[in-house]
Amino acid sequence: MSQASKLALIKEMLESAESSLRTAKQMISELVGPGDKNSYARKAEAIDTNDHEDDGEDKIVEGVFDGEKMQDKNEKTFPVPANYASKSKLVPGDVLKLTIKADGSFVYKQIGPVERKKVVGVLTYEDGQYKVIANAKAYKVLLASVTYHKAEIGDQVTLIIPEVEDSQYGAIEAVIPKDISDLDTEGEF
User: Fold this and answer.
1) Residue 134 sits in a domain of what CATH number?
2) Are the C-beta atoms of 142 and 173 separated by less than 8 Å?
3) How many beta carbons lie within 10 A of that of residue 70, not counting itself?
4) CA dihedral over 43, 44, 50, 55, signed as positive or negative
5) What is the pLDDT of residues 103-151, one digit of tens each?
6) Which of 10, 34, 137, 155 has its CA 20 to 30 A from that of 76?
């Protein structure tokens, strides 16, 4: 077997192993039982205020953004509009306040941003999901963020991720112009 063939085989094996690990991690996160609260619900429990009525008609719920939705302390989820999450550059762990108006409308406000860091990565698309590969990890990103920034597969992007917690999601901050080629595509700023 030639050296090029061996390298191609090794690359294929590594990609397969990485895909298997991602799938296994996803399956583990889906198996978190109802008696064992996930990390977002535990973080929501630590929020100082309780759910309450505002002006007798509006209901206030506080929770934690998980990358797609908000989870309260009881693990109840609330849809967060993708355009709001993208525009506000929400990352998993951000604390949100949801006001449910008497007319049924939802109004979100970010009240506790989590510590963040920025990394540079490459936009990809696999398994029906846009992802940014940075620091040897694939971070999911919202379609609304990709379209807002007019990003294309293969573009280098600046991604915002939680500083401390391991996250499956990130928020696109910017697309790096193609003529800037001296940046490291896998590093932190």
Assistant:
1) 2.40.50.140
2) no
3) 26
4) positive
5) 999 999 999 899 999 999 999 999 899 999 998 899 999 999 999 999 9
6) 137
